[in-house]
Design goal:
The complex is a heterodimer. Chain A is mainly beta. Chain A has helices at residues 6-16, 282-289, 295-306, and strands at residues 25-30, 33-38, 43-47, 53-58, 63-68, 71-73, 79-88, 93-103, 110-120, 125-135, 142-144, 147-152, 157-166, 170-179, 184-193, 198-207, 213-222, 227-236, 240-250, 255-264, 269-278. The radius of gyration of chain A is 20 Å and the shape is globular. Classes of the chains: A mainly beta, B alpha/beta. Magnesium ion binds at residues 44-45, 87, 161 of chain B.
Chain lengths: 308, 251
């Protein structure tokens, strides 16, 4: 990658597993500017006129192609708001990798707020991966506020994997989805907060068509003095099924609030919410200690596994 | 060699102090397979937890190869060579069987060498090595994986707490073979099995009986077994506490 320094390359590794220029379509945004872009025959990436975001058009029937749109920020004090719109054609099957890495060594806050809108065509199948990562020793905060809107047509499938394990001071994530008949949404969120970090994650999923299904699962660990709020609301407006789950480990002085929200507006809507918050089970630690691990090593292993 | 010297242990129950292990002294010699048996609630698992360091005795000493390990932590004892397969194995979300075996060995061994330990306990390694050690595993599968991790750890003293519990009839013979195999390669180490199964008692060099927290008998199988079987008092006791539990050969 041409204009990227070492820190930027490291961030790219963290958020998009990129060692080199990705295959397929991509756009790399670095410190509010495009550091490289490529469209392919089936996937067109068009920058918005104001420079703040992209329109990504995926042709109907596109098979097994990928789009990478990572964002890295290394300048302290940057604050940006970008809009990315994805039009995913009927019957296509694609992987979209987003993600944002912020390195802040300065004293001013750095903030990236990305609004992603997905228009998923009939029968299309999307796998979406979004990783957040923060680093840098400055006192300036690393802030990420992603907003995601998903509009799913009939029989489409969207699998979202959202990961934030390290270094982001503040996040307020809102995800909304509208599902037509037969559409299937799967969300897997993994979150770890430490220090005095704050993470709020809100979902509002409308199951509007017959046979729509949603499965929203969050696994999280809150350490030190951090705070998390998981607020997942499912609305069953048709014969449909939905499941949300919040499974959390709490440590030190961490705090977690899980807010279950189920609203059934149809007699054939089947909605389930599960939430479990607790510290690491003592017998898990003891078992690993009988294998020769120290208490701290045991905890690390248990958390790593839990968030894997 | 492991020695327990006058070990006592109690807990504070609602009704006040409750004695669970009473002045137990015993030796697990090198190169020997010792089986401890006795009625439910007799204190066998508690004794195993005392040996592993999960519980600390109220009085008495525990020596491993002559070294006093009474005050050592679970971790330190594990590193000095004590292995312990739980009666009720622990489940972990997200940790895979392979991870657990590697932790037990203490190094990132290859997948194929990790698989050997699963094969040893009669699990088709390919199907299980990548499985999560979570609630999706059946009781018997979990129990075998537990045994496999202790085999993998290769300890100076390996303690197995009711390894047969939950293992199906067909695999039981295989399990006996696992212990027989361990016994053959025992040199310089020792094995302690807590069991109610006569066929496990049959492979023991020495059998001990723990009842009400007291060691009531010890010796070779032929010395101890006749006193156990068919004695009037063991039967009603077993009926009372052991009904419905699998693997109650002594009942
Ligand atoms: N923490 C505790 N608090 C109260 N009672 C306990 C505690 N731990 C063990 N006990 C009691 O001590 C006794 C011995 O328990 P232990 O689990 O050692 O028995 P065991 O011989 O292993 O039985 P089993 O054959 O059923 O496995 C039981 O009566 C049990 O209820
Ligand atoms: Mg027991």
């Amino acid at each position: 990658m041409l204009k990227l320094d070492e820190i930027q390359q490291r961030l790219l590794m963290e958020v998009a597993d990129l060692h080199k220029v990705p295959e397929g379509a991509y756009n790399i945004r670095s410190n509010s500017q495009s550091a490289g872009r490529r469209s392919t025959e089936n996937i067109e990436i068009i920058p918005r006129e104001d420079g703040q975001g992209l329109t990504v058009k995926i042709k109907p029937g596109t098979q097994n192609e990928s789009v990478h749109i990572p964002v890295v920020m290394t300048k302290s004090g940057l604050k940006e708001l970008v809009y990315n719109d994805f039009y995913i054609g009927e019957g296509s099957k694609v992987v979209i990798v987003a993600g944002c890495g912020i390195d802040n060594c300065g004293t001013q806050d750095s903030e990236h707020d990305g609004i992603h809108r997905f228009y998923v065509g009939k029968g299309a199948n999307v796998r979406y991966v979004e990783k957040h990562y923060g680093s840098g020793t400055g006192s300036g905060k690393r802030i990420l506020n992603p907003g995601t809107e998903v509009y799913m047509e009939e029989d489409s499938t969207m699998e979202m994997e959202m990961v934030q394990i390290k270094g982001v001071d503040d996040t307020n994530r809102t995800t909304t989805a509208e599902l037509a008949a037969g559409a299937k949404l799967v969300v897997r969120e993994r979150l770890m907060t430490h220090g005095s970090q704050n993470a709020i994650s809100t979902y509002v999923v409308n199951l509007n068509g017959e046979g729509a299904t949603a499965d929203v699962v969050s696994r999280s660990v809150a350490r030190d003095d951090s705070y998390q709020k998981f607020d997942a609301k499912l609305l069953g407006n048709a014969p449909c099924s939905g499941h949300t789950e919040c499974d959390s480990i709490i440590m030190d002085r961490g705090r977690i609030l899980a807010v279950p929200g189920l609203e059934a507006n149809d007699v054939d809507a089947a909605l389930v919410h599960e939430a479990a918050i607790g510290k690491i089970a003592g017998d898990q630690i003891i078992k690993l200690m009988t294998l020769g691990l120290t208490e701290q090593e045991a905890e690390e292993q248990i958390i790593n596994g839990f968030l894997k | 060699m492991l020695e327990l010297q006058n070990i006592s242990f109690g807990v504070n129950d609602e009704g006040g102090e409750k004695e669970i292990i009473r002045d137990v002294s015993l030796t697990i010699p090198d190169n020997k397979l010792v089986v401890i048996t006795g009625p439910n609630g007799g204190g066998k698992s508690t004794l195993a937890r005392l040996i592993a360091g999960i519980e600390k005795p109220c009085s008495g000493k525990i020596l491993l190869d002559g070294e006093d390990i009474t005050s050592l932590s679970v971790t330190d004892r594990a590193r000095k060579g004590i292995g312990y397969a739980f009666q009720q194995p622990v489940r972990f979300k997200g940790i895979q069987v392979l991870d657990l075996i590697r932790l037990a060995i203490g190094s990132k061994v290859s997948v194929s060498s990790a698989c050997e330990y699963l094969s040893a306990v009669g699990l088709c390694a390919r199907d299980y090595i990548g499985r999560e050690v979570n609630s999706s595993l059946s009781g018997g599968e979990l129990k075998r994986i537990e045994i496999a991790t202790v085999l993998a750890k290769a300890s100076r003293l390996s303690v197995f707490d009711e390894p047969e519990a939950g293992i199906d009839l067909w695999s039981f013979q295989n399990l006996i073979e696992v212990f027989r195999g361990m016994r053959e390669k025992i040199s310089g180490s020792s094995i302690l099995i807590i069991s109610h199964q006569e066929r496990i008692l049959n492979i023991a060099d020495e059998v001990m009986v723990l009842k009400n927290g007291v060691l009531t008998a010890s010796g070779t199988r032929d010395e101890v077994l006749p006193g156990l079987m068919g004695t009037g008092d063991a039967i009603p006791e077993c009926r009372m506490v052991g009904a419905g539990k699998e693997g109650e050969a002594t009942c």
